[in-house]
Amino acid sequence: MNEQYHCSGSSNEYNVEQETLNYRVENRFINSNKDRNLIKTFALWKSLLIIMFLCVPNSVNGTYVQRNMNPSGLVDFACKNRKAIKNQIKIRESDIFLRIIHTNDIHSRLDPFEKNEQGESCKLSDVADRSTCFGGLARIKYVIDELKNEVDGIGNNFKSLVLDAGDQIQGGYYYSFYKGKATGDIIKSMGFEAMTLGNHEFDQGPTSLTKYLKDIGLPVISADIIVNKTAETELNEIVDSYKIFEEMNLGVIGLTTNDTAWTSSSGPNIEFLDYVDTVNKYVKILNDKGIQRIILLTHIGYEFDKKLASMINPGVSVIVGGHSHSFLYSGDDQKVIGGNKIQGSYPTIIDNNSWTTCIVQAKCWGEYVGHLDIVLDSTGKVVNKYTSGSPIRITSETKENKLIKKKVDIYQNHLYNYINEKLGDSILNIPLVDDMVRLPDTNGTTNIEIKESPMGNMVTRALMVAAKNSNNNQIIDFSLISSGSIKIGLKKGPIIRKNIMEATPFNDAISYATINGTVLVDALNGVLSGYRGNNTVREFVFMDGVRFNWTESIKEYIDESGNSKLNTTRVVDRVYIRKRSTISNGIKGISNYDAYKIGSKVDIREWEIVGPGKNYTFATSDYISNGGENIFLKTEIINLERQYNKKNVEIRDLVDPPTNPRVNTYQIVESYIKSESPIYPISEGRSQPGPLFKN
After folding, report:
1. Which residue ranges does the record assign to the 5'-Nucleotidase C-terminal domain (predicted)?
2. What CATH homologous superfamily does 423-581+602-647+664-682 map to?
């Protein structure tokens, strides 16, 4: 409820300065001076104001005016629009007017974020100009409540529904530090009536996901995943295929992207099913229960949503989507667009055998809240003339919900000093990559980045330095991380903790895995080709302790349109591994100028060709050791040892005490920087198409 007034039938105070004077009618803007003057007159006689006078129609010449929040974030007086909606939306008793309020891909952006590629917290990043900051859960909650207040209470067949389409967690400082603790604590107070699972909900594995879902207590729906009842009993009990809203005779079916199996850490006990078959199955189940109005709540991406709507049996009225971070909008207001690329109409209409399905999505990170007004008849069909809606941009002028703001502030203040602690210095820039080569994926776009990474080299060197026993002897042969686990490099100068959090945002737990030489070569061929059998590989690897090169061949071919194309094939040539005899006393860091100068001159006498029959142990993330990105297949791991450390207790543990704390990426990189500072970049030709060793 609005903090300035109450719509309960009692006397009411109204702040004239909070009124929005522009209202949208099918993407046209009009000025309601008549309403403004009337309210100002009432304000002079506020002692006489009661609810029946305030809830006047928000209309012009009797025409229903779509409720709008303008880009400044000011909100229409909710009571006014209620009567306008009821007077203008003439529906049968068997129909329902439904306002769907939706978010997706919040990715732990708890407070307003900076509009750049990283999208980090403006407060935690010390952004001076807060007008460039967007989103924030306190603002989102305020908008959700305003949108609900306009509809709730109109009548029995005027309803609202608040949905979230997944990926609530993963990304930004808050997740890096608190994991799901902070996000979950606030999400459970946002008023969501159902959520589906995104791929990133699985990033810490099913056990962590189960705890997160138990803590937030929301209805969770995902019909296309099968959870092993024996191995993941609690998760199986939490996740349903659909949720029925009896008062609306409406069912919501959830879908999660099948890509989760290889882009996250879902583990061996989660199976993913075909989208079309799943939807058709559960639409029939709901129909058999007498439920005719059906919404899909999906985390599969905008393009898949459109394909799905055209392929399934008729019966789905609305698809509320996520995953692709798509900005859908049908207007031309630049303040709403804000430089974002419009990827489709809001709503996108798909006609399937004379059945209309409306598709909506609200970009990502909480920059927008979507709201779709729609009328459904008793069979679930859309009454098209009443369909309207738009994404609402959450700006620095959008008001905040005080209770949510207070919660966010607690986590924010706790985190600020911690992430700004200095760890060391870098003598030079440590870039993510010096030069980038991109390989096309199956869709013809470019995804795989193939080039040595000074930042990747530093992180993998840190893993090597950390992997020693009590006698200071090296206990692994090499280290490996995926290219997607590092987002940016480090700049010359002081290194503070949040620089590491920005560079390696996933903070994966570390495991030691064992494979044989043949598997290693096969895996490297996979990252070069983009495939391992029928599995797609979309990331390169950064390594320490392994050096490899490849050959390239270019062939001409004719595509389906008859055009001549060139296809480049890359195949591993040589793979070298550092001799164990040379690392028995432990790997050292690159922490002095002499080592930096000779870094590119690697002595071949310290290396040997990988032996197909030999077993090698390496340090990597849990994500990779569990088959992430299909770099390694789960069946290829001979032995897997998760790394625990009883001394691994950080400030976050005061909030959420751990059991069997894991060694993670941050701790290893932080320790390396503290012990080796000042840091020098490492760029020594570990992976390339040319010679691996120089004379």
Report:
1. 447-631
2. 5'-Nucleotidase, C-terminal domain (3.90.780.10)
